[in-house]
Amino acid sequence: MTKSARRLGILLSGRGSNFWAIHESVQQGMLDAEIGCVISDKESAAGLALARNADYDALYLSPQGWDREAYDRRVVGELRNRNIALVCLAGFMRIITPYFVREFRHRILNIHPSLLPSFPGLDAQKKALDYGVKVTGCTVHFVDEGVDSGPIIVQAAVAVLMGDTVESLSARILQQEHILYSQAIGYALDGRCRVEGRRVLIANEAETDLSKT
Ligand code: GRF
User: Fold this and answer.
1) 11 Cβ inside 6 Å of ligand 1
2) What CATH class does 1-104 carry?
């Protein structure tokens, strides 16, 4: 497989810790991939600054004055110009349009801080805490036309502890996110994910379970 077939496009709007965890997985040789670009819809995103400081091809694409599909056409154009093989949403606070999903069908991943299908949408950790679940976690899934609804690639469970606050629970989930996202990206880049309806079948799943290293 050529290197360009392993080129990632990272889309973010905020702090960028998942982007940075992916960067570190690549640097440490745990993930065979190349970050081809980082795109943000927020000029002030800390993740965008991180990407610029690390000399990535980092773009701010302002959504102002663009309708949703026109914006996504720009994003898709930038991704195509850079031969991006896989798109990773990493705290990207926009719902992408069906056009974007079609252009990169089963080549867009998202990470979400709950065990989907529980608690989709914003404030997933708070919703889990308020609901009183004993176990929550995080999910990496393929993006489809819905919100946090696409086929699930991997999940990690996190226990809710007595005395947990949204902050403490979010921090423990985030630690798992940072492991899980690189694992899922590896599966996708290696062509090991077969989507059958809602199920994602992963060839030889035990072999590259980064959480067990
Ligand atoms: C993470 O909790 C992720 O699950 C959600 O948005 C947050 C992004 O955090 N989709 P960061 O910007 O990667 O630190």
Assistant:
1) no
2) alpha beta
